Every structure is written in C-alpha cells, then in structure tokens.
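TODO from last week: model EAL domain-containing protein.
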Amino acid sequence: MGKGRTKPFVMPINRTGEDRPILFVGWIDALPVPAALIRPMERGRFRLHASNAAFDRLGLSTVGTDIPTELLQAIERATLNPADTDEFACQLGEGVAARDLRGSIGPLSSECGDDSLFLLTLIDRTQEMMTERNLRRELVSDSLTGLPNRAGFEELVEERAATDAEKPGDHAVLLLDLSRFSRINEHIGSLAGDELIITVARRLKSSLRSGDILARTGGDEFAVSTRIGKGKADIRELAGRIRGCFDHPFRIADLKVSVGCAIGCAIQSAPGTDVADQFRHAQIALKRAKRTDRIEIYEPEAARLVDNRFGLETELRHAIEDDRLRLDFQPLVEFATGAVAGFEALARWTNGDGQLVSPSEFIPVAEDSGLIVPLGQWAIGKAAEVLADWDRQNGGERVDCYFSVNVSAIQLVRDDIAQAVRSALETHKIGGERLMIELTESAIIADPDLAMSVLSKIKALHARIAMDDFGTGYSNLAYLQRLPLDVLKIDRSFVEHMVDDREKVAIVRTIQSLAETLGMRTTAEGVETADQARLLSALGCDFGQGFLFARPMDSISALEFWRQSRTKPIF
C-alpha cells in the first residue's frame, strides 16, 4: 500500500450556494461509512459537494489536507472511465496514528441530469489490517527469540535475492545445529533450555555482519543467509566466526553450560535457485558435518547420494511390504563337537534389477527411515517360518538347532520386540528356545533399564539372548551382571590376527573368563583360519562363526549343511 501524499486544491463545502446538491445531503448523512459527493476537476483537483460526519472526521474535507495518492489516482481513473466503479486501498496519516482505508468511487447521476458527480465511500480497515499484520508476524517469526522462523527466513532470502539480482557476488545459506542440546535440556529443564536458546541467538547476532539474515529454523537449529564475494573462503571465514561464539560457556542462572555446533553451508549455485532447494542443500551438508565435526559445504555429489538413498528407501519399503527379501544362514559351530549348533539368520535383498544390495548399504537406510522396525519384525517371523518348514522337511521331527536374529538398537527403543517374538512363535508353533535374539553391546548400554525390561520379557518366552560385538562398547560390568544374557559374541576385531597378537589373545581370554564367571557361553565371530579356531577352542570358547566353516547360504543349503554336520564334524 502506497504512502505517497500530495496537496491538491480542495474546494470547501458551499453550505449556502447552489453547488451543494441538497437532495443527497440527508441520504449521505445516513450512510454508515465515511462518504462524500465529489466533482472531479483537472490536474488532480476536485470539488467536494457534500459529506457526512464520518467523512469529515477523517479530515479530508479540509483545504490543504494531505490526500493519499491512491485516492487521487482513483478519482483520475473515475474521470477517464465515468461509467465504472473503482475500488482502491490507501493509508491516511503516518506512524501509529495511520488509518488503513478501503475506498470505492463511482458515478452518481442527479435528478437534474448532472452526471458529473461521484460517490466516494471509505471503510476503515485499520483494526482488521493490524490483526492481519500481527497474525502474519506470528506466522513468520519465532516466538521465543523474535527471529524469523523457517518460513520467514525463506521469504526474506527470496526478497533479498530479487533486490540484489543485479549486484555482483553470490548468496549462501549456513545451517547450524547445537550439539548436546537435547541432553542439556533434559538436565537443566525446558525453561533454562529456552534461556540458553535466547542467549545463543544473541551471541550469533553479534557475530554477523550488517545485512546478514539470522533465523531460528528449528528447536536447536539456526540459519544464516549472507552475501559472499570470495566463494568458499568467505563462507569458512563466517562459519569460523560463528563457531567462535561457542568458545566460551553460556551462563544460565548459576550454571555455566558448554555447547558446540555443527555447521553446514550451501552456495547459491545459479541465479534464480529456489530458496527451499538451497536450504535442503545446506541440510545435506549439515548432516555430514554432524558426522565429521567439520564445517561442511554442500557438493552436488552429496545430493545425488541422498537422492539415491531416498530411492533405495522407497524400493526397500516395497520389498518389505511385498515379502521380497530373504534370509541367508551362516552356521554357528560348536568347537567341542564340531557340529552345527545353530545359524545366524542374515537379511539379504535382491532389488528389482536383479542386483544384490549389500546389507551395509540398505541397513543404514532402514535405520535412518524407521524401516528397521518392520524389517526386524519380518526377520523374526521369517526365521520362525523357516524353522517350522525345516521340521516338516525332517519328517515332522524337530530339527535340533536354533536361529539367531539381529535386532537393531532403534527397534529396541521403538518396537515391542517381545511381542514380535511371541507372535512368531505362536504363528509357527515352535518353542522359544529355538530363537536367539542378538543385540549389539552399544544398543544395550545406551539404555540399560530399557534393555533389562525388554530382555526379561524375551526370556519369559524361553528365547535366548546374545550380546553382539562384545568388547567394543565398554559395558558397565555391574549392568552386565544384571542382564539376562546367554551368549557373549566376541567381536571379530579381537579374533583377527589373534594368533600373532598376544594382546588380542589376552582380551579373548578375559572375555572368556568373564562369561564363565557370569554363567554365559561365548561365540567368536570372524573365524577364518584353522589356527584361529584351535586357539579359540583352547581358550575355552564355545562356538565359532566365520568363513572357515561356511559363508552364508540359502535355507535349502543350510538344512543340508546341518544334516551333514550330524554325521561329519565341521571342525
């Protein structure tokens, strides 16, 4: 809405002369909105013939009044097109006293045949516009810091890009995510956490240049838009200053809180680049920065990898829903007898193009997307199904082995694993002792109380539990003693080269002694040589798993492998 002003010549109302159309005076006074009869003249002039009290209170009937430019333009248009009614918006006055008006002007013929009179009406929309502006401000602002939120940030960046289109240089977006904020918030409380966010915002603002845009785009995420002239060098300089804001602890009440941040950046790659795309590019860089703890700048190759991961996620989702994955089985060999005691069930996926997708590729995608929960449920159910099928192939006689199924730390938190095991056992009518659930050491020690609750429920179903990758997660021995574990799986990093490394032998011996003390058995992973197997057996290890015995195989081959081990020891 324009705020231009001019001072046209305004004829005062002639209270006694014939210029005043007496016929309309009472009618105009009866209108509920400011209204007047005017006669347009040349060069922005007009004669005011009659007006009601509401119009007079606006001050527009006074000679020398500042008349809004929009009103004069509407009068001029009405003069040029006397048959049409013209609507317009204008603002009367300045600052806090300004009034927002919506006007309408159209021809009004008199009974005397004078068709040069126009009826001007004005509606005061000040309160409505104020409410709209306040709502708009709330929509694009962060209520805690007063900074723009993500929507407001994108609008401001778009506006500046349009304004600076002809200026040299590029624009860049930097995203920063506060490290440890959720844990800090849990310990000091949400009110103190809010105070920390406000303090961080103030420090960040003080580190920026004039013209930089700062926004809070998430709970603990901030965004900066800046103009750069030297490409990546400028970005790294600014990012360095931002990181400098976190060099000293933040004082919150009586506490001093140290906070770090990860920073991801994206440079506008071409004129007209969509702000949402630039923001997404910065998010990709930020995600990488969280892993590397470095200032990361978006590269197109990273975006292609992300796009590939989204495509892989979609395809994996369909594969799980359509039961197009399979389980392969790697034998667990008992050192004392050389027989196959069980198999580890491993998820395998061949995509729609007939290509085998590595678990190291699709498992992380499943964990990031949450698909690890249905994938884990599928694996537990499929393992039970294969065991039941083996019993049928064995003439209805129970096959004397168990399947070990891996469960992700994410599934431990998000899913009811015990219910998934119960459902699989009941559906396929097999005993719980024929399933072993494997959880990584890091998953268990991340939340020991939750692990204790979940594992106790699994044990109530008579299923067994193994701690995978033992020795890599620095378990608390007090918790280890409490947990209802059956097997410790010795990580392959300790088995590799152990024949020539006394330190690794000492570690394996210590794990074996610990397991015996706690009444647990041990399985060594990654057994690839006969010397490793003999040494592990001599140390008292119970089971071995690795390429020395067999690579993962399909269910038909695995059943035959088990049968052969009954008559001819594998080791």
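Done. The two ends are 87 Å apart (CA to CA).
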